[in-house]
Write a structure and sequence with these properties.
This protein is of the alpha/beta class. Helices cover about 35% and strands about 25% of the residues. It is built from ten helices and 13 strands. The strands form two sheets. Strands 5-4-1-8-9-10-11-12-13 form a nine-stranded mixed sheet, sandwiched between helices. Strands 3-2-6-7 form a four-stranded mixed sheet. α8 packs antiparallel against α9 and α9 packs across α10. The protein starts with a strand and ends with a helix.
């Protein structure tokens, strides 16, 4: 079983020729409203990877709350632990340029109301996987990690968007999932020399497994007391990288919950993330396991 405690948003996505510079006004080409939020994205990815998934978080009392949950509901993610609170649902304003690069502004809304009580009510048990990100209040994330670790669940923490976390938090984390920017920021917090390989140094400093995603360059993974492994990137034509990292996280959790070792789990997650880049949007671009298996078959 996969448990996700995290953000639930509506994404307002706009395509542009070039991303705006400071003080610049530009004209966009199209506007779409789709479900998003790093927590919800990861939950949907894990579900499309074949796992049973329970989502915990919060939406507002506004008109877009149901839309924010629509794809999770459609794919039969358990939403019993999603609270409905007064105020707006979280939202993100996403700008994607012709090179598939993006800028994102997030307004937390109801996500800021996720609390320690929800974290401690997670019905995790031995063998389950908990996925965490940082678009909800930090105390809830810390409490959830400690609670799940004590119950014997595997805790995967995606430090996105980056925040400084206390040393005690990492004691509850089994797998730390980072991209290059987050790894650089964590290295500064840890006082690590960035001229060396960051993934092995972070893994040693925190005594945890590190998975470092490098976009089109692939993945570096370092398990405790083991040398670094590299997974080659996929050769795809990206049109939108929004949600690729969340797709990776959800698939990684699902593959581990299904009993796969870390390296093959990362390979499948890498393929899923690559496929997510070939379609616009976040949740709308998350592939099914059948699509990922087809890509893997054609890449052999």
């Amino acid at each position: 079983m996969i448990h996700v405690l995290g953000s639930i948003n509506i994404d307002y996505a706009c395509t542009v020729a070039t991303l705006p510079a400071a003080g610049e006004t530009i004209t966009g080409r199209a506007l779409t409203l789709t479900p998003g939020g790093k927590g919800a994205n990861q939950a949907l990815a894990a579900r499309r990877a074949g796992a049973l998934v329970s989502m915990s978080g919060a939406v507002g009392s506004d008109q877009v709350a149901d839309q924010a949950l629509s794809l999770l509901k459609q794919d039969n993610v358990d939403l019993a632990s999603v609270a409905k609170v007064d105020g707006p649902t979280g939202c993100a304003f996403v700008f994607v340029d012709a090179q598939s690069e993006n800028q994102i502004v997030i307004i937390p809304g109801a996500n800021d109301r996720v609390n320690n009580q929800q974290a401690l009510e997670l019905k995790v048990s031995q063998g389950d996987v908990l996925l965490l990100q940082l678009e909800i209040p930090r105390p809830a994330v810390i409490a959830a990690a400690a609670h799940a670790s004590a119950k014997g669940a595997t805790v995967i923490a995606n430090l996105a968007p980056y925040q400084t976390m206390p040393p005690s938090f990492f004691e509850s984390v089994d797998i730390l999932l980072l991209n290059e920017t987050e790894a650089d920021q964590l290295a500064v917090d840890l006082g690590i020399d960035k001229t060396g390989g960051l993934a092995p140094q972070i893994a040693t400093a925190l005594s945890t497994t590190v998975v470092l995603t490098l976009g089109s360059q692939g993945v570096i993974l370092v398990e405790k007391n083991s040398p670094a492994q590299t997974i080659t990137g996929m050769n795809i034509s990206a049109i939108d990288t929004v949600g690729a990292g969340d797709t990776f996280a959800g698939y990684l959790g699902a593959m581990l919950a299904a009993g796969h070792a870390l390296s093959p789990a990362c390979e499948t997650a890498n393929q899923a993330a690559a496929l997510a880049c070939t379609k616009p949007g976040a949740q709308t671009a998350i592939p099914t396991l059948e699509e990922v298996n087809q890509l893997a078959a054609t890449s052999i």
